[in-house]
Amino acid sequence: MPFFARFNGNPNFRSELLNGYELGYRRLIHRTLYVDVAGFFNQYYNLFSEDIIGAPFIENDPAPTHILLPADFGNGLEGSTIGGEIVPAWKPTSFWTLKGSYSYLHMVLKNGPGSLNVGSPSAIVGSSPQHQVVAQSQLDLSKHLALDLTYRYVSSLPGLKVSSYSTGDVRLGWKLAGHFEFSVVGSNLMQPYHVEFASDPGPSVATRRSVYGKLVWTSKEN
Q1: How far apart are CA 64 and CA 124, in angstroms?
Q2: Distance between CA 167 and CA 208 in Å, rounded?
Q3: Measured over all CA atoms, what is the biggest interatomic distance in the chain, rounded to whole angstroms?
Q4: Could you tell me the pTM of the whole model?
Q5: d(CA 86, CA 83)
Q6: Cβ(68)–Cβ(55) below 8 Å
Q7: Phi, psi at residue 4, to the nearest 5°?
Q8: pLDDT at residue 8 tops 90
Q9: Which residues, other chains included, contact 168 with Cβ-Cβ below 8 Å and sequence gap of 6+?
Q10: Is the confidence at residue 76, as pLDDT, over 60?
Q11: Using CA atoms, how far apart are residues 34 and 89, in angstroms rounded to an integer?
Q12: Separation of first and last alpha carbons in the chain
């Protein structure tokens, strides 16, 4: 027999609450070296939850006959997040720039006192990556020719059964006459495809390796 849950609107639903604390530091250490560091700590209360408000029962209308679980939207979750990010930039020569970033996220989520939540807090926690890394190289090969390389890493999403992945992009651009620029870009080149997030409903849709060209026109400055 089919089994369903019916969620109804809750007139007593309260606003979610957040107490957030942030601290950052940025400095031009040298004329060629810059760094930006930031950290945060957040506390959450009255978070959205899916609450069971009664025992399952058999329902005939609408057909076919099915088992229905009465449910409501509530404020049964609470938790905290802590994390940070560092973003350095270095220009070793006049024609070469290196940039990067690393971000970290640690999330704790649980059912609050008296919560009727039926969802899994761990599934929500596992739907955000804990580690993310980006490294970029921007190289001016000549006055009109530029080569950009980008590497990206994102850690796994265990709540969605999505594996970690590493991938990279390459861009080769030519500055043409008349304020035109033409570029050839290779995207997600390190594997034929990878999954970044789970689809709902249906199977996950993968991001595929691709190559494309782009033509950009920039107007003259006033």
Answers
A1: 32
A2: 11
A3: 75
A4: 0.85
A5: 11
A6: no
A7: -130, 155
A8: no
A9: 149, 150, 151, 152, 188, 189, 190
A10: yes
A11: 5
A12: 71
Q: Domain tally for the chain?
A: 1
**CATH code (residue 149):** 2.40.170.20
**Could you tell me the pLDDT band of residue 54, with boundaries at 50, 70 and 90?**
confident
> Is there a domain that residue 58 lies in?
no
Would residue 25 count as lying in a domain? Answer: yes
pLDDT digits (tens, 9 = 90+) for 182-204: 999 999 999 999 999 988 777 88
Phi, psi of 31 (to 5 degrees): -60, -15
Q: Which two tokens stand for residue 194?
A: 């990878």
Tell me the percentage of the chain whose pLDDT exceeds 90.
69
What distances in angstroms separate CA 187 from CA 123, 160, 181, 184, 190, one per listed residue? 30, 24, 19, 10, 9
DSSP 3-state assignment of 124? helix
Quick check: is 65 in a domain?
Answer: no
Instruction: Give all strands (DSSP E) within the chain, no chain letters.
Output: 3-8, 17-30, 33-52, 57-59, 66-93, 96-111, 131-140, 145-154, 165-176, 180-187, 193-194, 207-208, 210-217
Q: Residue 221's pLDDT is what?
A: 62
Cα–Cα distance, 35 to 7 (Å, whole number): 48
Domain that holds residue 86: 16-47+75-217
Please report, as a single letter, which amino acid is at residue 126. G
